[in-house]
Amino acid sequence: MSTSQTSPQIPPKYLREDLLSDECKKLLLTLPKEKGWLASHIYNYQGFWIAPRHLQGVIACQQQFQAHDSDIILVTTPKSGTTWLKALLFALVNRMKYSIFEQNHPLLAKNPHDLVPFLELKLYVDGGAPNFSSFTSPRLLSTHLPYASLPKSVQDSRTKLIYLCRNPRDTFISMWHFTNNLKLDHTNTNSIEEMFDFFCKGVSLYGPFWNHVLDYWTKSIEKPDKVIFLMYEKIKEQPKIQLKRLAEFLECPFSIEEENYGVVNEIQRMCSFENLSKLEVNTNGKLSSGEKNKAFFRKGEVGDWKNYFTIEMSEKLNYIIEQKFQGYELKF
Length: 332
Ligand code: PPS
Known about the structure:
Elements: H1 22-30, E1 33-35, E2 41-45, E3 48-50, H2 52-64, E4 72-76, H3 82-93, H4 106-109, H5 112-115, H6 119-123, E5 140-143, H7 152-156, E6 160-165, H8 168-181, H9 192-200, H10 209-222, E7 227-231, H11 232-237, H12 239-249, H13 256-261, H14 263-270, H15 273-278, H16 280-284, H17 311-325
Parallel strand pairs: 4-5, 4-6, 6-7
Antiparallel strand pairs: 1-2, 2-3
The site of 3'-phosphate-adenosine-5'-phosphate sulfate (PPS) has 21 residues, from helix 3, helix 8 and helix 15.
């Protein structure tokens, strides 16, 4: 007998809240929770806010990940330019293996998130131990974890940490758009007013934003060989200087010949928003967790917040920024 019934659509993995281990479900029952940006709730774990599926990945990587001294880990708060810096990092570190002028450079065929995977969002997200056998040294990895919650071996080893920070106003706008866009059929979208209040209270993905930034800022001053602190806006403003700074930190500075040959400029061009966002893989591809690659490329501009903030919102966030960053040399 034939049937014309269609099977119910299975949601993409990033929306599945049923794929959790019993251990994780039990832990969630004990944690403070708030309305989620994308998942129904976010939970406070070790002082920061996280979605349930990612918590499972955090616990697994905290328990199992063994850092190597040669590892390079990119750390960001969500929406601060991770995709961009993953591309720059990959191109920079692998420039002897993959010439940036090659027609078949991996960045032309793969999304940066597939080339520099997240520990807790990809490698350990299902709770199991990933296979690192296909990685070559140095392993390029990434995470959104706050410093104090990094796997212990990352803190104790000579692993290098690249921290990327972005103006909290643009980070907020980007996060609000991103999480609304990932909702199926754009239903139940969150209002900007509601999410702004959560952001200001520190209830944002891997937030409070200020704690995350200040911890890495402080570490970058205490341990300049281990942590470099980069800013999205500075890379936009002086891409060459910041890329060279990163290359020096990673102990792979550009030679004069490379500079004369245009390698630095070509890495910048290859990784630009204009170039990456137009590639076939980034317009039509998807991550294994189900997000469309194009969701990671929206505008890529500095100051888009000005198109959204009311005067009240500006004043409120200005005040919080002033309070939280008082006494630090960080200006937003
Ligand atoms: S995620 O989900 O945390 O990995 O997102 P993340 O990549 O950190 O943030 C996405 C924002 O970065 C912009 N973007 C870029 N800016 C400049 N250059 C390049 N190449 C680039 N690629 C992505 C992206 O558009 C998001 O910012 P908004 O303000 O939403 O446009």
